[in-house]
Fold this sequence. Notes:
Layout: E1 11-16, E2 25-31, E3 34-41, E4 51-57, E5 62-67, H1 71-81
Parallel strand pairs: 3-5
Antiparallel strand pairs: 1-2, 1-4, 2-3, 4-5
Amino acid sequence: MPQDEAVIGCTGTVLIGTRGAMGPGEVLVRVRGGSETFLAWSEEPLPVGATVLVIESRGCREVGVIEWVDPLDALGDSAEAG
């Protein structure tokens, strides 16, 4: 299956929770100037609403994801506290 290299490194939101090894969920990914949905696989289950980072393309509208926390968000919290 051809991979979709453009989606790797993009962030998105979980629409249907992933189930780890038990099966995929669905994510909405910001890519190509818009948003697209993909089947999403993760090592650990991820809940609806979680922010994810796409780490691999598995071909035909399937991606591998990990939970993502933007490191710049932590900087914003530090600035507000100081």
